[in-house]
Amino acid sequence: MAEENLSVVLYAKGDLRIENRPIPEPGPNEVLLQMHSVGICGSDVHYWQHGQIGDFVLKKPMVLGHEAAGRVVKVGSAVTHLKPGDRVAIEPGVPRDMDEFFKRGQYNLSPTIFFCATPPDDGNLCRYYTHNANFCYKLPDNVTFEEGALIEPLSVGIHACRRAGVTLGSTVLICGAGPIGLVSLIVAKAMGASKVIITDLFAERLGVAKELGADFQLTVKKEDGAQQLAKKVKEILGAQPQITIECTGVESCIQTALYATCSGGVVLLVGLGAEMTTVPLVNAAVREVDIRGVFRYCNTYPMAIAMLSSGKVNVKPLVTHRFPLEQARQAFETTSQGLGIKVMLKCDKNDQNP
């Protein structure tokens, strides 16, 4: 085992360092992983640029990264379902307590949950990392490490579509064609949505959406009015969508989502924006439009692995840039500039393949 554990550590707002840390030892219920592929998420960039997201404030140095896959190199004394050499996808959220949320199957809502790269918990953008073995999922031979890392954003799409009630024949509007809008699109189509329309400011992103199965793409401009856009969506679809999945967090987009959705439909808020947002609440209320939120995901990894292994979904086109771990700073700059879609960091010096 190489004795270095190169890690990408955020010390404070704007202070990103690449440093060597000791290789950790797995506890009884943990596995030591040699990390292979870790995607950069918008939240990683946000912590780097702002030092906090909402109530989660960086107070001490923290290893970034939570979209990850790696190889087991050592197992804890109580671990029976994994062995060295196994390739795994890592679910970053591990409940610490068997509280009411855990018992209800909504462990993502547990206030004491551990979550990679959410202060104060360290992430896995490093060479070696220990994680609870029950939240490491074995990858089938036909699923790559990069696909394994993409299960994390894919999980957001699965949880979003489940919460929104996407099913056979659903008509869906997706606001925003970034990584989360695109995984929501992929999952909505796999779950049987008959028509999906997706909006974005950037035509390139909508081009990728088309490639991934979007039936209609609508390029929007910042000055477009919410009601005007809602009308355009109806004209393109031929009717108002039953479900809108809002992935931007932008106030005007949330307004569009509410106006656009048919009476009795569902608006699902995935994107996180300003804490206080002005929306046409009465319009939604009198039309019985349900407004639902999501916080991360739960119980999604087995479904995601089955979808990838069966070929029902294809996430490979999402990866547009790759960097070795040593070039983490360039990778973060690339993501922050909005270039491409998903930037992947390769953590294993001897294996830079997908």
UniProtKB/TrEMBL annotation:
Recorded coiled-coil stretches: none
Domain spans labelled Enoyl reductase (ER): 14-345
PROSITE patterns xref list: ADH_ZINC
InterPro entries xrefs: ADH-like_C (IPR013149), ADH-like_N (IPR013154), ADH_Zn_CS (IPR002328), ER (IPR020843), GroES-like_sf (IPR011032), NAD(P)-bd_dom_sf (IPR036291), SDH-like (IPR045306)
Compartment annotation: Cell projection, Cilium, Flagellum
SMART domains: PKS_ER
Gene3D superfamilies: Medium-chain alcohol dehydrogenases, catalytic domain, NAD(P)-binding Rossmann-like Domain
GO cellular component: motile cilium
A GO molecular-function descriptor: L-iditol 2-dehydrogenase (NAD+) activity
Keywords: Cell projection, Cilium, Flagellum, Metal-binding, NAD, Oxidoreductase, Zinc
Main location, first listed in the record: other
Cofactor(s) of this protein: Zn(2+)
BP GO terms, sorted: sorbitol catabolic process
Classification via Pfam families: ADH_N (PF08240), ADH_zinc_N (PF00107)
Family statement: Belongs to the zinc-containing alcohol dehydrogenase family.
Protein name: Sorbitol dehydrogenase
Organism: Poecilia reticulata
Upper taxonomic lineage: Eukaryota, Metazoa, Chordata, Craniata, Vertebrata
